[in-house]
Please model this.
Amino acid sequence: MSYFPFCAICLLFLVDLVFPKQVCSKQDVLEHLNLTRDNEKFTTCRPALDWTHPTVVYFDIYLYGILSMIEKSQIFVPLFWMSMSWNNERISWDPKDFCGIKSVILPKEMLWKPDLYVLETVEKEDGPLNPYLYITHDGNVKMEDDHKIVSTCTMNVHKFPFDTQTCHITVSSINYSDKEMKLVPASNSSKATQVARESILTQGEWEFLNISVSLQNENYEGLTYDRIKYTISVRRMPLMHFINFQLPILFFLVLDLASFFIPDRGEKLCFKVTVLLGISVLLLILNDILPSKSHRCPLIAVYVVVIFSFMLLSLLETILVIYIINMNSEQDAKGVQRPEDHNSDTDNRKRDSNGVEAPLESLMLKEIYSKEKMDDVQLLQLILEELQTIKQTLVPRTLKAKTAQIYWLGMAKRINRVFYVVYLISVSLFLVFIFREWKVE
Model:
């Protein structure tokens, strides 16, 4: 019994000497297939032994990043992981003949590849690509790579910054029709959406919603070409835009409403002009964000322009009130004669022979002094009549001026009060309407 393990080891040693272990490398597989860089049979022609047999290409993309969306130039820049696979009918080997080797990785230049391109691309990629592809013993070829695609995207900024954008990525062949090459999406819409949500790394200010996958056909010069269209829906996260843009405009509007309570008319006018200039700066910022051409006017533009118009009307109303008040003051200064001017005219009626003024020597007073038998009561009565005559001359003019002044001041206050009420109601209704439009999907 003790000799049995020793005999087994010796037997295995003799088997290795008689039948040595086979040593293989993947280079042996390439030599068996005659795969070289200059072999045109593998590099130039579509890998079908029968030309009527189309090559089926399974294509799939996985979204894992949204780098940017530029509204001004209508540009969408996503990051994709692209995968495509097809069957090369000229490639096959038995893994048993090559020590169980079932797959080989080789450079892309050694095999034919589908000529797929993205229709929406506006800029060529400048980054390095994966230089290898993967082949299996049954002829399946798989090629994977990540791509940064700079593509066009027609954006609807009507509800900016509460907007949802939909961009398309369409993949098609340049030269092969559907009779030679058929495109098949490897994943449906639900799977592509789920994978993107699990693997997405960066979104910026955008929130990924879903991906829709559809297979389409296009006729061109009598030939039909397969297309796979990926529709990517994203939603903007509006918090920063609301804080940095819409909220300051609301603050400016509140300040303009509060300016109606400034007592000094000059300071009130300067304050309103300053607020209006602040809104103008925000308009310049908005012009750099939104595209110059859009199918529908953006609500943010309506929001800013209407509030700017309200503030402009408020400024014009302030100018009108100040003009009315100043015009009333000028008329009062010109139309009212001062009492001392009237006294001067009365005093200059008579002067004595020596050039000395005699303000009390009017015609009536001379008669009074000329009567020797006139008592004191009659003298006081005549003086009172003279004073009443002077009062009847001055009082109507003063009352008329005060009445006109009260009328114009009252009119200015009424205009200011009515405009403030109308202004407040109009602004409130507009804000309710505009935010309701932003909220409605």
In short: The radius of gyration is 48 Å. The chain has a mean pLDDT of 80.
